[in-house]
Amino acid sequence: MTFAYPTESNKAHPARLSPDYKSTVKRSPSKPLIIMRHTLSELTGPVYGHETVRAGDSDLTTQHKSEPIGERIIVHGHVLDEDGRGVPNTLLEIWQANACGRYIHVRDQHPAPLDPNFTGAGRAESDGEGYYRFVTVKPGAYPWGNHHNAWRPAHIHFSVFGYSFVSRLVTQMYFPGDPLFPFDPIFNSVTDAKARERMVSAFDLENTQPEWALCYRFDIVLRGRNATPMETK
Amino acid sequence: MRETRPQGITPSQTVGPFFAYGMTPNGKYEWNDAFTSNLVTPDTAGERIRIEGRVFDGDGKSVPDCMLEIWQADASGNFADPKDKRALPNSKFRGFGRCGTDANGDYAFDTIKPGSVPDPDGKPQAPHILLAIFARGMLLHNYTRIYLEGEASNAADPVLALVPSDRRATLIAKRAADGNGVYRFDIHLQGDNETVFFEV
User: Between the N and C ends of chain A, which has fewer C-beta atoms within 10 Å?
Assistant: First the structure.
């Protein structure tokens, strides 16, 4: 199958300059981007070996001597292309704060405790149908310095590759019904309400494991659609 | 295929300030690196080069919390991706690298000089490396290309030709004076010397 990557799909993304998120003011381009055709360089992308994802990398609750503190959750879903087909064997990387809202990063100064049993990093490869699954703990909200009383809604950072270098996506998965949504300039940098909803996971009772963990479903749609639709008939 | 076609792609969000322990741990955290800034494998054919530089914001301040990713062809102009039907799996060279900037905003990739890759019309492009730039304050990564100073084919490159001539130099990595394969490529996210970024 040959994939095409219409640049129109990029309209779902936030504007690079979104002044309510103050750090964008000095880090966004001030000159127009140059529009170019995709060449083989843009239409190909990295392939990683099986050594990239080790056994256990997708379970963030079993990387240390004991289990981390917090609400154990399952996060699963499909990586899809723009036609809704699963993207097989693609790498997903996640990182997140612990249940108290503290990152293990050396520069995170939020006065909430670190958890010796939680690093907060994970990896998985989607299966032949594009399906992936992580086990982790629900991250906490945390304050940041963007404006007075600024708090980030709880989120998990996702990094996904897809079929080509232009399908590359780094995003954040949010949790349904978070009361901080209306006040978060990063979440609201996506101005289309329907596009914003695609960053919010859905509570998944059917796949919640009784006596063990709540489940959230998060499908990720990457750029790329079939450029040769007649061939599928 | 699923019953309902997606209504659109998942929007991008910033990588934030705290990605290093997951994405570029580099021995500083209890997590291994999926990718590194050294793309060279022992069996890689081609001229060894080093691309190094610093990332600057619109005030000219260095950016110490930036993540850079590169993607390139091998020395014969083939990509390590089955979608490149011309490619021969004759090397472990993967063509992909990742690097976080350090406290000074500096980065460096060790790689090889890529071969020429055709454009959609079959016209040769000058050797180039694709670069994606992620950082706090960047809600969507920027794409650019690294070309190499001294390549005669730069003059006829169809993508460079799209760039206004007074901005073209921002895309060409400067060869170090001693000619030891080191090229300098600074990245200016904004301002007078702003690096050319592409809408792809």
Answer: C
